[in-house]
Amino acid sequence: MNASRATFNVHYAWRRISRNWGLYLLLLPAVVLLLCFTYKPMYGVVIAFKDFSPVKGISESPWAGFKYFEKFFHSYQFPITIKNTVAISLYSLATFPIPIAFALLVNQMRQNRFKRVFQTISYMPHFISTVVLVGLLLILLSPSSGLIGQLYGLFGAEAPNVMGSTTWFSSVFVWSDVWQHTGWDSIIYIAALSTVNPSLYEAATMDGASRWQKIRYIDIPMLIPTVITLLILRMGGLLGVGFEKAYLMQNNLNISSSEVISTYVYKIGLLSSQYSFSAAINLFNTMINFALLILVNYMSKKFSENSLW
Amino acid sequence: MNAIETAAPAPRKRASAGDVLLYVWAALVLVVLLYPLYFIVIASFSDPSAVGNGLVWLFPRGFTLEGYTELLKHSNIWIGYRNTIFYTIAGTAIGLAVNVSAAYALSRRDLFGRKTLSLFFIFTMFFNGGLIPTFLAIRDFNLYNSWLVVVLPFSVAVFDIIVARTFFQTSIPNDLWEAAQIDGCGNLRYFVQIVLPLSKAIISVLGLWMAVSQWNSYFNALIYLRDKDLYPLQLVLRDILITNQMQSNMGTGEAAQIALRLANLLRYSVIIVSTIPIMLVYPFVQKYFNKGVMVGSVKQ
Q1: Helix (H) or strand (E) holding B278
Q2: Three-class DSSP category at B225
Q3: Does a structural domain hold residue A181?
Q4: The whole model's pTM is what?
Q5: Other CB atoms closer than 10 Å to residue A214's CB: what's the count?
Q6: Domain covering B66-300 assigned CATH 1.10.3720.10 in the classification
Q7: What is the mean pLDDT of each run of 10 residues along chain B (300 residues)?
Q8: What residues of A are in contact with residue B206 (Cβ under 8 Å)?
């Protein structure tokens, strides 16, 4: 009975698949690429629990248990990289409301033409590459010839070496992000605001609502679902300060506050070829991010109707 | 709608204090956003010593094209430029082919195993093997130090797939497929001859996204390329703008001064030359970018 049912199911599935074989052909390239370059490395992550040697390969290398995780937890770099990563992430998270405020203000502009031009210009920095952005920072913040050097010079003071300082690193990192991405990040909020029914504003005006009251009671509630979705996604990256920018902004002078997990993983793994150790640090990082994402999504589901899935 | 508006124009209200503040704020924002970029432009045409002494604020001083002529002497910049153009074209073509077709298949409700397949894609957004296991996989496939590594292995973009899938679901009516089926049209022919021509908007949005990110990226090249001849522009830029900057602070003496002067000039002009292609197309395409973000924000 069960067996015939199973064959029936297989038969049924096969019929449905073969009827749409063209669709599977369309999926094939993406699936193959993901299998080879994303899922295969997910299997490769076992080297974090092995003493990997390139000669023996992944499956032949001997098991090492949690040796490399312990090595990381006991290394003197552990508190430093974690502290730097979390500090920069939290600092950056604190700037999360800026694009929201930006969108609310743009939404207040009545001059449509000006509004359009203003928005267009505000997206522009988003398209500058990370390399050029860091190059720009080095030029503008150079204590001898940069803008900041000139400003201090006006008052006859000696400018600090901002790019080579441990205290300034996180501020430069976060605020240059704000400079580059606020306009772009606000698009999604501006789009959400554009769906507000104009009659709501008219009714509010009739009732004598002030401009601020309209923002407070119409605009902001409108944005809440979008804000929550984006916040959840942001939480999933709490332990993930992007490699590209941090690595470029690093130098010998600021390294004690600029070494984050992603750059450390790169140096341990590719510059000093400790494959297993690097993979262990990386896996630790990924697991924490993944757990955070699930936790935040769960809490959001529980306390509001908003969640990712 | 239009007729009503022209017949009875809304009474012009006097600008309130709030409006004035709003536009003052907007003006300040524009200055903060644009001035750094403007400064690089004028500095690239100025005598570097004038820039160094803080004389360049609003207009170029001691006009010179030396930075740009210096640029011509650096062949690695042009090799990088050529490589990047190639990578951008190839990467965008591959990315579009792979992602748009996958997105279409996933948008079809009669696809057997659709939920599982979607999960297969979405899972990769939140979990991955990490740098070293990926590096080992690339080496296993003999892609290390090959130009293919920049354009092929990481071309699946799940976020783009979701955006395109949402587009297909909302703007291609299902009746169309049923009608085509009755006429004996198969999936592949339907996709190529009917779906793709109807999807020019989303294809151009995604294509432009991919092109810009390919143009600006340096990570994959840094990790997987060794030959300087294969370097994309961004890696060459990194040498000029960042690595050399650290070194140039060290030297003294006349020779070092001259080298520093040229290095500074080169820095400004190379920023301009590498960013111009994007800034040139940008005003024409930004409204599509805008649209793409909105399509993506529609919750599935």
Answers
A1: helix B253-297
A2: coil
A3: yes
A4: 0.88
A5: 17
A6: yes
A7: 42 72 94 92 87 80 86 91 96 97 94 93 90 95 96 94 90 89 91 92 86 93 95 94 67 70 86 88 67 52
A8: none
